[in-house]
Specification:
CATH architecture: Alpha-Beta Complex
Shape: globular
Radius of gyration: 18 Å
Largest sheet: 7 strands, mixed
Strand content: 15-25%
Number of helices: 11
Number of domains: 1
Length: 309
């Protein structure tokens, strides 16, 4: 693709901008569904473990959305971390039926392990992950990836705890989430608001530098990634999301919270290490540049956006 003029996105973040931005980009000619034109620019990873009930419907829903809303070549990866139900058979069948969908099998559990493997193998410029339950409204995908393609930010995350978010979930998860993020701000001095929302994107060039520094292979993986990115001085862009709790979630909240707290203690100690601080400073010192893309797409992505009234 030909390069586009450099520029930054302004005004991203208000939930009301999601629809307007999506409509703007739909005016740009999109590739046929699943067409990757040699390689994807954006890769969406769905990490799964025993998700036979939800897998097919969720993949087809993401596929249909990307075919109409994304204006750059894309790919969807089902990252299966050791499922023992019918998920492998469903994933392989979907990869065979849908152009632009692939199935990746790992024989060991761990969401972080699945994301590390899928992201490390990806030829895309921007890698995304979303929970297979699709609790986050897909309308947030375009403003999630746009600031990464433009060079505005290194990482983008959905937030359920920032102004403009619309969240439906039980009181127990709400309290635990708010307490955990308050602990992160108090102990690790982070500035981002929501470490745990399963809706994130990162530039692949930044991921290649940060992933070797991330130790966790499970649920603390993305918190650790965000903390390291912020300590490197990288810009983390947050967007408010519409989010509905998955009532069928099989995540052990207490065990996961305990593991996360152990991760916080470990990181507080590790962040004092001079060598880690030196490596993070080197990562943060390089300027971000826009991802090369066609001129028409570049104008749509890079033009300033007016915040919703």
């Amino acid at each position: 693709m030909a390069g586009a003029e450099a520029g930054h996105i302004s005004g991203l973040g208000a939930a009301g901008n999601v629809t307007g931005m999506t409509e703007t980009l739909r005016a740009v000619k999109s590739p046929p569904p699943g067409q990757v034109a040699g390689r994807p620019v954006v890769e969406i990873v769905l990490p799964i473990y025993n998700e036979q009930a939800a897998l097919e419907a969720s993949v087809r829903r993401v596929y249909a959305f990307t075919a109409t809303a994304l204006w750059v070549p894309w790919r969807i990866t089902i990252a299966d971390n050791a499922s023992s139900d019918a998920s492998p058979a469903i994933g392989r069948r979907l990869a065979g039926e849908l152009s632009g969908v692939r199935y990746l099998r790992l024989e060991r559990k761990g969401r972080g392990r699945a994301l590390r493997s899928a992201w490390s193998q990806s030829p895309a410029d921007v890698v995304v992950y979303m929970d297979v339950d699709l609790s986050t409204d897909l309308g947030a995908l375009v403003p999630l990836i746009a600031p990464l393609l433009s060079g505005h930010s290194a990482i983008a995350i959905g937030s359920r705890l920032t102004r403009g978010a619309c969240v439906t979930r039980g009181w127990k998860r709400e309290v635990i989430s708010r307490c955990y993020n308050r602990i992160l701000r108090s102990v690790l001095r982070v500035r981002f608001t929501d470490a745990q929302c399963g809706f994130k994107a990162i530039r692949a060039d930044i991921a290649a530098q940060l992933l070797p520094l991330v130790e966790d292979e499970a649920w603390f993986f993305d918190t650790e990634l965000l903390v390291l990115a912020e300590r490197a001085g990288l810009r983390i862009h947050e967007i408010p999301v519409d989010w509905v709790d998955d009532l069928d979630s099989r995540v052990d909240i207490v065990a996961t919270a305990a593991a996360d707290l152990r991760g916080v203690v470990r990181m507080r100690r590790q962040l004092r290490a001079p060598e880690l601080r030196r490596r993070l400073a080197a990562i943060g010192s390089a300027p971000l540049r826009p991802v090369p893309m066609s001129a028409a797409v570049g104008r749509a992505v890079l033009r300033p956006l007016t915040p919703a009234a």
